[in-house]
Amino acid sequence: MRPLVVLVTLACFATAQHQALIDYLERRLLAIEDRISLWHEQTTRYASELRELKQQMVSQLENLDKEKEVLRMSLDSVGTRVDRVERELDYLETQNGAQPCVDVDDKLIEQQVTLVKEKQKVKYLKVSECSDMISSIKAMKILKRVGGPKGTWTKDTSRAPGKVFIFNGTDEDTIHEFASVQDFTRSLGMALSKNLKLPSAWRGTGHVVHNNYVYYINQGEELNVLKYDIKKNSVTDSAVFPVQDHVPVYGLTPETVMDLAVDEEGLWAIYATRQNERHISLAKMDANSLDIEQMWDTNCPQENAEGAFVICGTLYVVYNTKQPGRSRVQCVYDVNGMVTNEEAPLVYFPKRYGSHSSLKYNPQEQLLYAWDDGYQILYKLLMKKKLEI
């Protein structure tokens, strides 16, 4: 019996050791599983954080590229503006020099005058192949009557379809913007318009809208051309127009001290000074920097003039005739010398209510946007080639 007891005892002891080993191994496996689970959670979290960091880095790099481009454009703009400011300072110094420097100022004035005369003698370098001129008024359409007797209405001259802009009056600061011509015609007054408030009042009726910018005239001690960004609702540039003794450009619209125009070749300024013996002058401007590229004195008188516009580098001045409500193009000036008054066709405007306070040409549509005693009128133009005269 004793050997049997010993064997049973040994078996029980072995079983107990085996069970203890199994329990130990189970505990170790559970601990390993917990640690693996923890590692998995940490790895997932680290991977998520790395993805977020990557997205942030990509976004930061994109922003840096954008800021770099904005900075580059700003530097280019600053360089252009510095050049213009230097020229304006030179001009202002010639007008307000100190007494001890009278001789030097006289020399500077002579240099400025010589420069302008040289610009007037140089043949204008065309920036397009446009050679159209007016043959006749093909059609007239009165859209509606809104606002006062004098004002301006126009579309953005850089695109055919689009918004309509109403400048009511000759000394205001709020533009009425309509989404389309259809909205303008069916609107009760200005009810469907959006108001754009300028930082300063415009002067006269010589404004234009081009490439999402409003170009308008403000008159203080100097004659200023301002460039207003419609999208940013702010003035992005301005320039003093370098003329002395300026006078109203049109005899029948004395509020308009300068008339801006846009044609196929860009931005123009129509103005007048006492030095040109009451005749109209013309200047080609850079629409981006507002610099003056070239200037011309024309033989078109201001007296009895209603307005003017430019097509393919040719200035057309409209005069009121002796017949009530009748106007005609009576003076033409082509900067390339291809058209003269003798060669230009007679262009009569249909009978209307009064006289035009503004005439704005849209080169995309070949339409004239006219304001006549509060009536908004469209003129469809029939064109021909200058070489066909």
From TrEMBL:
Q: Which SMART domains match?
A: OLF
Q: Which ranges does the record mark as transmembrane?
A: none
| UniProt xrefs under PROSITE patterns | OLF
Q: Name one Pfam family in it.
A: OLF
Spell out the subcellular localization from the entry: Secreted
Give the matching InterPro entries. Kelch-typ_b-propeller, Olfac-like_dom, Olfactomedin-like_domain
- Provide the GO biological process annotations: signal transduction
Q: What is its main location?
A: secreted
Per the record, the coiled-coil ranges are 47-95
Disulfide bond residue pairs: C130-C312
Descriptive protein name: Olfactomedin-like protein 3A
Name the gene.
Answer: olfml3b
